[in-house]
Amino acid sequence: MLFRSCKEKACVKERVVAPCSPLPSEKPEAMASATLLKSSFLPKKSEWGATRQAAAPKPVTVSMVVRAGAYDDELVKTAKTIASPGRGILAMDESNATCGKRLASIGLENTEANRQAYRTLLVTAPGLGQYISGAILFEETLYQSTVDGKKIVDILTEQKIVPGIKVDKGLVPLAGSNNESWCQGLDGLASREAAYYQQGARFAKWRTVVSIPNGPSELAVKEAAWGLARYAAISQDNGLVPIVEPEILLDGEHGIDRTFEVAQKVWAETFFYMAENNVMFEGILLKPSMVTPGAECKDRATPEQVSDYTLKLLHRRIPPAVPGIMFLSGGQSEVEATQNLNAMNQGPNPWHVSFSYARALQNTCLKTWGGQPENVKAAQDALLLRAKANSLAQLGKYTSDGEAAEAKEGMFVKNYVY
Ligand code: 13P
Fold it and tell me: Mean pLDDT score of the chain, rounded to an integer?
Protein backbone atom coordinates (compact mmCIF):
# COMPACT_ATOMS: atom_id res chain seq x y z
CA MET A 1 0.00 0.00 0.00
CA LEU A 2 1.40 3.38 -0.92
CA PHE A 3 0.97 5.89 1.93
CA ARG A 4 2.51 9.02 0.49
CA SER A 5 3.67 10.39 -2.81
CA CYS A 6 6.76 8.43 -3.72
CA LYS A 7 9.67 10.82 -4.25
CA GLU A 8 12.86 9.70 -6.02
CA LYS A 9 14.54 8.95 -2.68
CA ALA A 10 11.67 6.90 -1.29
CA CYS A 11 12.60 3.31 -0.63
CA VAL A 12 10.01 0.61 -1.19
CA LYS A 13 10.08 -2.48 0.98
CA GLU A 14 7.95 -5.51 0.30
CA ARG A 15 6.55 -7.69 3.02
CA VAL A 16 5.06 -11.12 2.35
CA VAL A 17 2.07 -11.86 4.52
CA ALA A 18 1.47 -15.57 5.25
CA PRO A 19 -1.78 -16.97 3.81
CA CYS A 20 -4.59 -17.50 6.31
CA SER A 21 -5.46 -21.09 7.20
CA PRO A 22 -8.95 -22.11 6.07
CA LEU A 23 -11.82 -21.95 8.53
CA PRO A 24 -12.88 -25.37 9.94
CA SER A 25 -15.98 -25.43 7.73
CA GLU A 26 -13.81 -24.82 4.66
CA LYS A 27 -11.53 -27.81 5.36
CA PRO A 28 -11.60 -30.20 2.34
CA GLU A 29 -12.24 -33.25 4.53
CA ALA A 30 -15.44 -31.67 5.81
CA MET A 31 -16.78 -31.86 2.26
CA ALA A 32 -15.86 -35.50 1.73
CA SER A 33 -19.03 -37.07 3.08
CA ALA A 34 -20.95 -39.61 0.96
CA THR A 35 -24.07 -37.45 0.78
CA LEU A 36 -22.22 -34.45 -0.47
CA LEU A 37 -20.37 -36.49 -3.09
CA LYS A 38 -23.67 -37.34 -4.72
CA SER A 39 -24.39 -33.66 -5.44
CA SER A 40 -23.82 -32.85 -9.10
CA PHE A 41 -22.15 -29.45 -8.55
CA LEU A 42 -19.18 -31.02 -6.81
CA PRO A 43 -16.10 -32.01 -8.83
CA LYS A 44 -15.42 -35.64 -9.55
CA LYS A 45 -13.14 -37.45 -7.12
CA SER A 46 -10.40 -37.61 -9.80
CA GLU A 47 -10.42 -33.78 -9.99
CA TRP A 48 -10.05 -33.15 -6.25
CA GLY A 49 -6.34 -32.52 -6.26
CA ALA A 50 -6.57 -29.91 -9.03
CA THR A 51 -9.49 -28.13 -7.42
CA ARG A 52 -7.79 -27.95 -4.04
CA GLN A 53 -4.67 -26.51 -5.59
CA ALA A 54 -6.61 -23.85 -7.48
CA ALA A 55 -8.53 -22.86 -4.36
CA ALA A 56 -5.42 -22.64 -2.11
CA PRO A 57 -4.91 -19.07 -0.84
CA LYS A 58 -1.97 -17.28 -2.43
CA PRO A 59 0.57 -15.29 -0.39
CA VAL A 60 -0.39 -11.63 -0.23
CA THR A 61 2.37 -9.11 -1.01
CA VAL A 62 2.15 -5.74 0.74
CA SER A 63 4.40 -2.95 -0.51
CA MET A 64 5.26 -0.38 2.15
CA VAL A 65 6.92 2.94 1.51
CA VAL A 66 9.52 3.86 4.07
CA ARG A 67 9.34 7.61 3.71
CA ALA A 68 12.38 9.58 2.61
CA GLY A 69 11.13 12.86 1.25
CA ALA A 70 13.07 15.28 -0.91
CA TYR A 71 13.18 17.90 1.88
CA ASP A 72 14.03 15.68 4.87
CA ASP A 73 17.52 17.04 5.59
CA GLU A 74 16.38 20.61 5.19
CA LEU A 75 13.38 20.08 7.48
CA VAL A 76 15.61 18.72 10.26
CA LYS A 77 17.99 21.66 9.83
CA THR A 78 15.19 24.25 9.88
CA ALA A 79 13.61 22.71 12.98
CA LYS A 80 16.97 22.69 14.78
CA THR A 81 17.64 26.32 13.85
CA ILE A 82 14.29 27.39 15.28
CA ALA A 83 14.86 25.26 18.39
CA SER A 84 18.22 26.87 19.18
CA PRO A 85 19.29 27.73 22.76
CA GLY A 86 17.90 30.93 24.23
CA ARG A 87 15.54 31.56 21.32
CA GLY A 88 11.86 31.09 20.51
CA ILE A 89 9.15 32.17 18.08
CA LEU A 90 7.40 35.52 17.70
CA ALA A 91 3.84 34.70 16.65
CA MET A 92 2.66 37.70 14.61
CA ASP A 93 0.22 35.83 12.39
CA GLU A 94 -3.05 37.41 13.52
CA SER A 95 -5.59 37.21 10.72
CA ASN A 96 -6.75 40.56 9.34
CA ALA A 97 -9.89 40.31 11.48
CA THR A 98 -7.94 39.65 14.69
CA CYS A 99 -5.34 42.25 13.86
CA GLY A 100 -8.25 44.66 13.45
CA LYS A 101 -9.32 43.97 17.03
CA ARG A 102 -5.79 44.67 18.26
CA LEU A 103 -5.61 47.93 16.33
CA ALA A 104 -9.07 48.93 17.56
CA SER A 105 -7.83 48.50 21.16
CA ILE A 106 -5.39 51.38 20.53
CA GLY A 107 -7.88 53.44 18.51
CA LEU A 108 -6.57 52.63 15.03
CA GLU A 109 -8.50 51.69 11.95
CA ASN A 110 -7.98 48.23 10.45
CA THR A 111 -6.30 49.31 7.20
CA GLU A 112 -3.49 47.60 5.33
CA ALA A 113 -1.26 50.63 5.99
CA ASN A 114 -1.78 50.37 9.77
CA ARG A 115 -1.15 46.63 9.77
CA GLN A 116 2.00 47.25 7.73
CA ALA A 117 3.20 49.98 10.13
CA TYR A 118 2.73 47.71 13.14
CA ARG A 119 4.41 44.69 11.53
CA THR A 120 7.29 46.89 10.37
CA LEU A 121 7.81 48.00 13.96
CA LEU A 122 7.97 44.39 15.14
CA VAL A 123 10.39 42.97 12.58
CA THR A 124 12.78 45.93 12.60
CA ALA A 125 13.35 45.92 16.37
CA PRO A 126 17.18 46.08 16.56
CA GLY A 127 18.82 42.80 17.63
CA LEU A 128 15.51 40.89 17.79
CA GLY A 129 17.20 37.82 16.29
CA GLN A 130 19.24 37.33 19.44
CA TYR A 131 16.08 36.11 21.19
CA ILE A 132 13.78 35.19 18.32
CA SER A 133 14.55 32.33 15.91
CA GLY A 134 11.31 32.27 13.91
CA ALA A 135 8.39 34.59 13.13
CA ILE A 136 4.96 33.31 12.10
CA LEU A 137 3.37 35.60 9.54
CA PHE A 138 -0.11 35.99 8.11
CA GLU A 139 -0.23 35.62 4.30
CA GLU A 140 -0.52 39.39 3.78
CA THR A 141 2.72 39.98 5.72
CA LEU A 142 4.65 37.25 3.88
CA TYR A 143 4.14 39.20 0.65
CA GLN A 144 4.36 42.65 2.26
CA SER A 145 7.17 45.22 2.43
CA THR A 146 8.05 47.46 5.34
CA VAL A 147 6.99 51.11 5.29
CA ASP A 148 10.46 51.80 3.80
CA GLY A 149 9.87 49.36 0.95
CA LYS A 150 12.08 46.43 2.04
CA LYS A 151 10.58 42.97 1.85
CA ILE A 152 9.58 41.78 5.33
CA VAL A 153 10.99 38.30 4.64
CA ASP A 154 14.36 39.87 3.78
CA ILE A 155 14.42 41.87 7.02
CA LEU A 156 13.71 38.69 8.96
CA THR A 157 16.44 36.78 7.16
CA GLU A 158 18.93 39.61 7.89
CA GLN A 159 17.94 39.32 11.57
CA LYS A 160 18.59 35.52 11.34
CA ILE A 161 14.91 34.88 11.98
CA VAL A 162 13.26 32.09 9.96
CA PRO A 163 10.02 33.26 8.26
CA GLY A 164 6.98 31.06 8.85
CA ILE A 165 3.38 31.17 7.68
CA LYS A 166 -0.04 30.47 9.17
CA VAL A 167 -1.67 28.06 6.71
CA ASP A 168 -4.93 27.06 8.37
CA LYS A 169 -8.12 28.77 7.22
CA GLY A 170 -9.67 29.14 10.65
CA LEU A 171 -12.27 27.43 12.76
CA VAL A 172 -15.87 26.60 11.83
CA PRO A 173 -18.63 24.70 13.70
CA LEU A 174 -18.17 20.91 13.69
CA ALA A 175 -21.45 19.32 12.59
CA GLY A 176 -22.55 16.47 14.85
CA SER A 177 -20.57 17.67 17.84
CA ASN A 178 -21.34 19.41 21.10
CA ASN A 179 -20.97 22.98 19.76
CA GLU A 180 -17.31 22.30 19.00
CA SER A 181 -15.23 23.41 16.04
CA TRP A 182 -12.91 22.03 13.40
CA CYS A 183 -10.15 23.71 11.46
CA GLN A 184 -10.37 24.25 7.69
CA GLY A 185 -7.57 24.57 5.16
CA LEU A 186 -6.54 21.19 3.69
CA ASP A 187 -8.04 21.88 0.24
CA GLY A 188 -5.34 23.34 -2.01
CA LEU A 189 -2.83 23.31 0.86
CA ALA A 190 -0.02 21.65 -1.13
CA SER A 191 -0.04 24.29 -3.88
CA ARG A 192 -0.36 27.18 -1.41
CA GLU A 193 2.59 25.83 0.57
CA ALA A 194 4.72 25.40 -2.54
CA ALA A 195 4.14 29.11 -3.28
CA TYR A 196 4.91 30.10 0.34
CA TYR A 197 8.19 28.20 0.12
CA GLN A 198 9.08 30.13 -3.05
CA GLN A 199 8.33 33.34 -1.15
CA GLY A 200 10.81 32.39 1.60
CA ALA A 201 8.71 30.64 4.26
CA ARG A 202 10.39 27.63 5.84
CA PHE A 203 7.87 26.59 8.47
CA ALA A 204 4.10 26.54 8.84
CA LYS A 205 1.49 26.75 11.57
CA TRP A 206 -1.93 25.14 11.88
CA ARG A 207 -3.97 25.95 14.97
CA THR A 208 -6.97 23.88 15.89
CA VAL A 209 -8.73 23.94 19.24
CA VAL A 210 -10.23 21.57 21.77
CA SER A 211 -12.76 22.88 24.27
CA ILE A 212 -12.97 21.22 27.68
CA PRO A 213 -16.35 22.68 28.79
CA ASN A 214 -17.94 21.48 25.53
CA GLY A 215 -16.82 17.91 26.04
CA PRO A 216 -14.47 17.41 24.38
CA SER A 217 -16.24 14.81 22.24
CA GLU A 218 -14.36 11.84 20.73
CA LEU A 219 -15.35 13.23 17.33
CA ALA A 220 -13.82 16.66 17.94
CA VAL A 221 -10.55 15.21 19.25
CA LYS A 222 -10.27 12.78 16.35
CA GLU A 223 -11.03 15.49 13.79
CA ALA A 224 -8.47 17.85 15.34
CA ALA A 225 -5.78 15.14 15.39
CA TRP A 226 -6.47 13.89 11.86
CA GLY A 227 -6.46 17.42 10.42
CA LEU A 228 -3.14 18.20 12.11
CA ALA A 229 -1.62 14.96 10.82
CA ARG A 230 -2.68 15.58 7.21
CA TYR A 231 -1.44 19.15 7.40
CA ALA A 232 1.90 18.01 8.86
CA ALA A 233 2.45 15.44 6.09
CA ILE A 234 1.56 17.94 3.35
CA SER A 235 3.82 20.62 4.86
CA GLN A 236 6.79 18.27 5.03
CA ASP A 237 6.21 17.29 1.39
CA ASN A 238 6.51 20.98 0.51
CA GLY A 239 9.60 21.80 2.54
CA LEU A 240 7.88 23.53 5.46
CA VAL A 241 8.42 22.39 9.07
CA PRO A 242 4.91 21.99 10.47
CA ILE A 243 4.11 23.51 13.84
CA VAL A 244 1.49 21.19 15.28
CA GLU A 245 -0.89 23.14 17.50
CA PRO A 246 -3.91 21.52 19.09
CA GLU A 247 -4.73 24.31 21.52
CA ILE A 248 -6.63 23.16 24.57
CA LEU A 249 -8.57 26.30 25.37
CA LEU A 250 -8.27 27.91 28.78
CA ASP A 251 -12.05 28.44 28.91
CA GLY A 252 -13.79 26.67 31.80
CA GLU A 253 -14.00 26.11 35.55
CA HIS A 254 -12.21 22.73 35.47
CA GLY A 255 -9.13 21.99 37.58
CA ILE A 256 -5.61 21.20 36.37
CA ASP A 257 -6.16 17.40 36.57
CA ARG A 258 -8.94 17.58 34.02
CA THR A 259 -6.73 19.60 31.64
CA PHE A 260 -4.02 16.97 32.06
CA GLU A 261 -6.42 14.16 31.26
CA VAL A 262 -7.73 15.86 28.11
CA ALA A 263 -4.22 16.84 26.96
CA GLN A 264 -3.04 13.22 27.27
CA LYS A 265 -5.88 12.08 25.04
CA VAL A 266 -5.37 14.86 22.48
CA TRP A 267 -1.62 14.24 22.14
CA ALA A 268 -2.05 10.47 21.99
CA GLU A 269 -4.47 10.84 19.06
CA THR A 270 -2.31 13.45 17.35
CA PHE A 271 0.82 11.27 17.42
CA PHE A 272 -1.17 8.20 16.41
CA TYR A 273 -2.41 9.89 13.26
CA MET A 274 0.91 11.60 12.55
CA ALA A 275 2.58 8.17 12.60
CA GLU A 276 -0.14 6.80 10.30
CA ASN A 277 0.54 9.67 7.90
CA ASN A 278 4.30 8.99 7.96
CA VAL A 279 5.17 12.36 9.42
CA MET A 280 8.88 12.57 10.23
CA PHE A 281 9.04 13.52 13.91
CA GLU A 282 12.54 15.04 13.65
CA GLY A 283 11.11 17.59 11.24
CA ILE A 284 8.18 18.97 13.25
CA LEU A 285 7.71 21.44 16.09
CA LEU A 286 4.89 21.38 18.64
CA LYS A 287 2.89 24.26 19.97
CA PRO A 288 1.00 22.96 22.99
CA SER A 289 -0.95 24.78 25.65
CA MET A 290 0.63 24.54 29.07
CA VAL A 291 -1.28 22.34 31.49
CA THR A 292 -3.11 24.83 33.73
CA PRO A 293 -6.48 25.01 35.51
CA GLY A 294 -9.37 26.48 33.49
CA ALA A 295 -9.44 30.30 33.43
CA GLU A 296 -12.51 30.35 35.69
CA CYS A 297 -11.27 27.74 38.17
CA LYS A 298 -10.94 29.11 41.74
CA ASP A 299 -7.79 27.06 42.44
CA ARG A 300 -4.86 28.74 40.77
CA ALA A 301 -1.61 26.88 40.05
CA THR A 302 1.94 28.04 40.81
CA PRO A 303 4.57 28.00 38.04
CA GLU A 304 6.06 24.89 39.69
CA GLN A 305 2.73 23.05 39.51
CA VAL A 306 2.19 24.09 35.87
CA SER A 307 5.72 22.93 35.11
CA ASP A 308 5.28 19.55 36.87
CA TYR A 309 2.02 18.76 35.10
CA THR A 310 3.19 19.98 31.71
CA LEU A 311 6.51 18.14 31.77
CA LYS A 312 4.76 14.98 32.94
CA LEU A 313 2.43 15.26 29.96
CA LEU A 314 5.31 15.82 27.54
CA HIS A 315 7.31 12.87 28.91
CA ARG A 316 4.30 10.58 28.57
CA ARG A 317 3.32 11.59 25.08
CA ILE A 318 6.11 13.26 23.10
CA PRO A 319 8.98 11.23 21.58
CA PRO A 320 12.45 12.70 22.16
CA ALA A 321 12.97 12.82 18.37
CA VAL A 322 10.80 15.96 18.33
CA PRO A 323 13.28 18.86 18.40
CA GLY A 324 11.21 21.64 19.93
CA ILE A 325 8.20 22.36 22.12
CA MET A 326 7.18 25.97 21.51
CA PHE A 327 4.37 26.87 23.90
CA LEU A 328 1.51 29.25 23.13
CA SER A 329 0.55 31.78 25.80
CA GLY A 330 -3.22 31.32 25.44
CA GLY A 331 -4.29 34.38 27.47
CA GLN A 332 -1.82 34.10 30.35
CA SER A 333 -0.26 37.40 31.40
CA GLU A 334 3.13 38.26 29.95
CA VAL A 335 4.89 37.57 33.26
CA GLU A 336 2.95 34.36 33.99
CA ALA A 337 3.85 32.90 30.57
CA THR A 338 7.53 33.71 31.18
CA GLN A 339 7.54 32.34 34.73
CA ASN A 340 5.92 29.07 33.67
CA LEU A 341 8.44 28.62 30.86
CA ASN A 342 11.29 29.35 33.24
CA ALA A 343 10.01 26.74 35.71
CA MET A 344 10.01 24.12 32.94
CA ASN A 345 13.67 24.82 32.17
CA GLN A 346 15.10 24.26 35.64
CA GLY A 347 16.45 20.85 34.61
CA PRO A 348 17.50 19.22 31.33
CA ASN A 349 14.73 18.21 28.92
CA PRO A 350 14.93 15.86 25.93
CA TRP A 351 13.47 18.60 23.72
CA HIS A 352 14.11 22.34 23.39
CA VAL A 353 11.36 23.82 25.60
CA SER A 354 10.58 27.33 24.48
CA PHE A 355 7.93 29.86 23.45
CA SER A 356 5.84 30.80 20.43
CA TYR A 357 3.87 33.62 22.00
CA ALA A 358 1.69 36.23 20.37
CA ARG A 359 -0.17 38.05 23.14
CA ALA A 360 2.52 37.43 25.79
CA LEU A 361 5.17 39.06 23.57
CA GLN A 362 3.16 41.83 21.93
CA ASN A 363 0.71 43.18 24.50
CA THR A 364 2.83 45.89 26.17
CA CYS A 365 4.53 46.67 22.86
CA LEU A 366 1.22 47.38 21.13
CA LYS A 367 -0.06 49.57 23.98
CA THR A 368 3.22 51.48 24.14
CA TRP A 369 3.08 52.20 20.42
CA GLY A 370 -0.53 53.42 20.44
CA GLY A 371 -0.23 54.14 16.72
CA GLN A 372 2.11 57.12 17.27
CA PRO A 373 5.31 57.30 15.17
CA GLU A 374 7.22 58.94 18.04
CA ASN A 375 6.55 55.82 20.20
CA VAL A 376 8.09 53.32 17.81
CA LYS A 377 11.41 53.11 19.66
CA ALA A 378 9.76 52.70 23.09
CA ALA A 379 7.43 50.02 21.65
CA GLN A 380 10.39 48.14 20.15
CA ASP A 381 12.15 48.32 23.54
CA ALA A 382 9.03 46.82 25.16
CA LEU A 383 9.08 43.96 22.62
CA LEU A 384 12.81 43.37 23.19
CA LEU A 385 12.27 43.33 26.97
CA ARG A 386 9.72 40.52 26.67
CA ALA A 387 11.77 38.66 24.06
CA LYS A 388 14.82 38.81 26.33
CA ALA A 389 12.83 37.71 29.41
CA ASN A 390 11.55 34.66 27.50
CA SER A 391 14.99 33.95 26.13
CA LEU A 392 16.27 33.83 29.72
CA ALA A 393 13.30 31.63 30.67
CA GLN A 394 14.23 29.24 27.86
CA LEU A 395 17.62 28.94 29.55
CA GLY A 396 16.00 28.68 33.02
CA LYS A 397 17.63 31.94 34.14
CA TYR A 398 14.71 34.38 34.41
CA THR A 399 13.67 36.30 37.52
CA SER A 400 10.54 38.42 37.63
CA ASP A 401 12.21 41.18 39.70
CA GLY A 402 11.41 44.59 38.31
CA GLU A 403 8.56 43.47 36.03
CA ALA A 404 5.88 46.15 35.56
CA ALA A 405 2.45 45.58 37.11
CA GLU A 406 0.91 45.89 33.65
CA ALA A 407 2.86 42.87 32.40
CA LYS A 408 1.23 40.81 35.16
CA GLU A 409 -2.31 41.44 33.91
CA GLY A 410 -4.00 38.39 32.38
CA MET A 411 -5.18 38.55 28.77
CA PHE A 412 -7.72 35.76 28.79
CA VAL A 413 -10.64 36.32 26.40
CA LYS A 414 -13.61 33.96 26.49
CA ASN A 415 -14.15 32.00 23.23
CA TYR A 416 -10.99 33.53 21.78
CA VAL A 417 -10.54 33.26 18.01
CA TYR A 418 -7.19 33.85 16.40
P1 13P B 1 -1.07 33.30 21.92
O2 13P B 1 0.34 33.19 22.42
O3 13P B 1 -1.61 34.70 21.95
O4 13P B 1 -1.99 32.32 22.59
O5 13P B 1 -1.05 32.93 20.37
C6 13P B 1 -1.17 31.63 19.97
C7 13P B 1 -0.99 31.43 18.52
O8 13P B 1 -1.37 30.40 18.01
C9 13P B 1 -0.33 32.46 17.72
O10 13P B 1 0.26 31.90 16.56
Answer: 88
